[in-house]
Write a structure and sequence with these properties.
Keywords: Phosphoprotein
CATH superfamily of the largest domain: Rel homology domain (RHD), DNA-binding domain
Protein name: V-rel avian reticuloendotheliosis viral oncogene homolog A
Organism: Cyprinus carpio carpio
Number of domains: 3
Number of helices: 5
Helix content: 10-25%
Pfam families: RHD_dimer (PF16179), RHD_DNA_bind (PF00554)
GO molecular function: DNA-binding transcription factor activity, RNA polymerase II-specific; RNA polymerase II cis-regulatory region sequence-specific DNA binding
CATH architecture of the largest domain: Sandwich
Amino acid sequence: MCFLVFIGHPYVEIIEQPKARGMRFRYKCEGRSAGSIPGEKSNDTTKTHPAIKVHNYSGPLRVRISLVTKNQPYKPHPHELVGKDCKHGYYEADLQERRIHSFQNLGIQCVKKKDVGDAVSCRLQTQNNPFNIPEPKIWEEEYDLNAVRLCVQVSITLPSGELYPLEPVVSQPIYDNRAPNTAELKICRVNRNCGSCRGGDEIFLLCDKVQKEDIEVRFFQDSWESKGSFSQADVHRQVAIVFRTPPYHDPNLTEPVRVKMQLRRPSDREVSEAVDFQYLPADPDEHRLMEKRKRTEGMLQNLKLSSIITGSSMPADRRPFSIAKRTLGISKPTAASSLPAVASAGVSVKPQTSSFFAPAPGQLFAPAAQSSLKLDPPSSSSTGDTWKFLQSLTVDSQPKAPAFPSQTRVSRRVYLVHAEASDPSVLSVAGDPGDLLHYS
């Protein structure tokens, strides 16, 4: 027998809200279960689910649960509830006489943007409109596909057997964990959890997906609060943030102080679970100047000690050496000294500029190099023998040099040949050591 308990007017209360974040909405095309909506108290060790309680009533009842929009007015949402006892996008079942009812097999299946219109039309056709929103108003605004609410409608059974609907209630929003602007904030890892009380320490933080324009790193302790410094360019692929720590409110710390650090989304004030961060007293030698000075002094002392032990002389294999300029003469060494009378003999060599100084392109000397030198006979008969020797000399032509580019201009100096009167075989050449004259 069904009866009402008239202690007060019956009403419905959601005693465990669905977990707002951490659940991912699944598309139908993914071909997998949409999972079940976890309860707000659910954790890794204990699984809970949304639950309701009907006050001031004991008896059988009918429950319908559907999805509505996050903002008022609560319109039917295009997303669907799937699972046991679900049809046309909502859940409905007759429950036995219990005060508390838990829903373990409810999942959320999302629709694509192009299918939103068809899904809303289906809600209207199945009269799934808990708050009786006029149809024109339903189509006024776009739907937020990243957030939904559960709407619970309970109908109690009167003694006459008729169903009496109670006032519908809605849950807190449930956000799709796929979307960065609504996803659960989580700090996965940081490269360091301590820094100077003066701030400015660089920290690398790994996290779940965030939006670079809607995220901040918050440091707090009791009534003190500050934010890490970074730009949007410091957010890498939505999963890493590089920032600098803010200074602590007391820059003259004498011992470490522990504070909290967390992510916060300014748009909805959502925060992550906080982690510990430790502020350390400031280092008096922040740039390690004293350490560098001591290291430099030690090196100088070692150098002085080394010079005292080894002496001022340097090993021969470590002495610097210089390479002298290469000089080349084609005079044959002789024991006899040069005679000044020869210089007055006036023997000179005159090159023919038409052939010697006009070589063909790619050659250092003219082809007729053998006949390019002419010796003027001396005016004095005392040097006749010397002149005969000079006339007997022949100057061989030079071998071909490597070809120069056509743009290169090659110039040669005038060579002065002096014959020693005492030894006609001595022939000294003044000029560039690289330009040699051959004689036989």
